[in-house]
Amino acid sequence: MATKNRTEVTEFVLLGLSSRSEMQAVIFGIVLIMYLMAVMGNTLLVLVACSDPKLQTPMYFLLSQLSLIDISLTTVTVPQMLVHTLSVDRSISYNRCMIQLFFFMAVGSMEGHLLAAMAYDRYVAICDPLRYSAIVSHNLCLRITLTSWVVVSLNSLLYSLLVTRLTFCGNQVTHFFCDITPLLKLSCTRPVVSEILIFTEGVAVVVSPFFFILGSYVCIGVAIARMHSVAALSKALSTCGSHILVVLLLYGSVIRMYLKPSSSYHLDQDRQVAIFYTVVTPMLNPLIYSLRNKEFKGALRRLFRKLCIRGSFQPDSQANKECQHMF
After folding, report:
1. How many whole angstroms separate alpha carbon 310 and alpha carbon 112?
2. Distance CA 184, CA 159 (A)
3. pTM flag (> 0.70)
4. How far is it, in rounded angstroms, from Cα 121 to Cα 62?
5. 81, 104, 97: which is closest to 18 by C-alpha?
6. What is the reported pLDDT for 2?
7. Selection from 288, 289, 326, 293 nearest residue 307 by Cα
8. In sequence order, what are the residues at sequence separation of 6 or more whose Cβ sits closer than 8 angstroms to the Cβ of residue 319?
9. Would you say residue 145 has pLDDT above 90?
C-alpha cells in the first residue's frame, strides 16, 4: 500500500500563503514589491563591492557573496509563488519539487556558513589586527566559500534523497514552496528515521555555524573587556553591529522553523516565518549593511558619479562639474 501511494504522487499542489481568494491580489503586490527590492538592493551591493577598488577586501568579498546568496534564496521560492498566487493551477511536478527543495536547502545553509566566515573575519580584525592581512586573505575567503558549497550541497542532496524515500498519502502541501517540514507532515507514516537524520544533519550543518559565530563573539567580547576602553567598545559595536543583527534575523527564524519535530508544525505561523526569511530578510540585509557603513556610502556615491559622467551628453568639464555637485 505504501508503494502504491508513493507511485501515485506525480505532482504536488502548493496551497500558498492564504486560501482566501480576496487576499491573493494583496499578497501578490506586497510580495512582488519586497522581492524586487531584495533583488535590486543585493544586486546594487554586489556591483558596488566589485567595482570600487577601495572595497576589494575580504570582508566585502564575503558580503558580496552573501548578497548573491540572498538573491538566489528569494529567487528559488518567490517567482513560483507569485505565479501560483494569481493562478488556478498551483501544481508542481514531483521532480521540480525535489529540485526546488535541493536548491533551497543548499542556498539557505550556505548563508549561515558565510555569516560564520564573516564572524571569523571580524574576530581577527578586532583580536589580532596586526596580523589581519596575513591571516585573512582573498585566497582564504575563496577556499572557505568553495568548501562551504561542497558541504551544503552534499547535505542538501542527503535531505532530498531522504524525502524521495517517503511515502505520501496526499499531494496538497501547506506551504508556498517545497520545504522539508511540510513534506514530512504529508508523509503517510511517521518517518522517525528520516526525522532523526534530518534533525542531526540540521544541527551539524545549519546550527554549527551559529555556534561558531557565538564563539567568535565571546572571544571578541573578552578581548574588548581586557582593553578597558569605551572607544574600543564603540568601534567594535560599529564594526560588528550590522553582522550581529543579520545573524539574529536569520537564525531566529531558522531555529523557530526547523529545529523542532514535525508534529509541532503549525500551518499559519510557519508559513509566516518562511516568508520572513525568504523575502523580508534578503530585502533588509543590504539596508542593514549599507545605512551605517561610511565606506559603502562613499563607494556608492563614486559609482553614481561615474555613471552620471559616462551617461552625460555634455562636454566632459561641464558633466564632471554637474555630477560632482549631484553626488
Report:
1. 39
2. 11
3. yes
4. 9
5. 81
6. 42
7. 326
8. 308, 309, 312
9. yes
